[in-house]
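Batch manifest, entry 17 of 40.
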Amino acid sequence: MSRPIVAIVGRPNVGKSTLFNRIAGKRIAITEDTPGVTRDRIYAEAEWLNKYFTLIDTGGIEPASEDIILKQMKRQAEVAIDTADIILFLVDGKNGVTSADRDVAEMLRKSKKKVILACNKMDKFVDEGNIFEFYELGIGDPVSISSTEALGLGDLLDVIIENFPEESDTEYNDEVIKVAVIGKPNVGKSSLINRILGQERVIVSDIPGTTRDAIDTYFKSKDHEFVFIDTAGIRKRKKIYDNIEKYSVVRSFAAVERADICLMIIDVNEGVTEQDTKIAGYAHDNGKGIIVLINKWDLIEKDDKTYKTFIDDVRNKLPFMTYAPIFPISALTGQRVNKILDEIIEINNFRNMRIATGVLNDVINEAVLMNQPRTVKGKRLKILYVSQVSVCPPKFVIFVNNKELMHFSYVRYLENKIRENFLFKGTPVVFTLKNRGD
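Output type: structure tokens
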């Protein structure tokens, strides 16, 4: 059984993203009064009356447009329609039926899917009379709503869940591994996701900034469930010009925060830049599992020293991430891409690993015997015991006689000893100091 999928479709600027955010319960999709802001399919988990489903926001459909981005938006909407169990056809109740609405309705009738028609922007009682002209679309009874004012959404959601397929899984699942693909603009994030999934899931273009939202894609492989989050490229603050891109960068950082593991992509032609260190540092500071991928490896000339030279350069410029695996890939040719899922699963296991307190303290006591803490003004630090208090990322509390005597270099020494014994590949570990009796 699979979770029901509901796709919101319609012509541009009818309020699809606002409705999507309302149902999802948080601001995920970017909303602006600019047609074409939502370009890709955006996924979110939603719930109504304890029934969980996947909601998809799509770019506005302009059937007659020849613009390259608008044509790809139409293609993405068509893929969402093919994927969905239920299609939520959104129209603008204030403006009435348009020729674009008729074209979209014709496309939906051909899909043979269950379609629910919702008339949006019905904020006032005087607008209610407009609803009757939408019967001409031949979709069925329209549901009157206002996504901005949150009017009629309960009635709409009741209709949606009544039409879920009988054999569907509407229970909550917390076993999904959330993976954010991060990096600067145009380093190949969308291409990598498409290569992993084996389909054109997100729009790929040489135009930087094509991806504006953090886009979620559900994927199942190797007996594990994943959600891949394709993020807008994160630029330097001074290079962010318009409001839409500002929202995109905020959404990218929010995607890092809700992810379990981040795939940090670096362009081999540029190497590790200052901006790369900031992006990686944000993931590190938020305790996320990290894999560093050197993309476009197929485009450079190589000899027997190229690999080592590049890995050493990454390690030197990202010294706070010595735990992160690094390997070169090509999203274009698929080189080494097949290793990524195995790495994600392994790192996720380490993020969830717990060490028994007795075993952990045996390691710490041996480390202290091998290298005693230095004295500070005649006083010596005493480590009483260490305990792991949580996972994702692994967090440890070190109980000492006086935490003012602990030097950061000694904490790093203890971390290295823990990693020698338990590895914790791909994940930061966090240490907190507490005095005796705290």
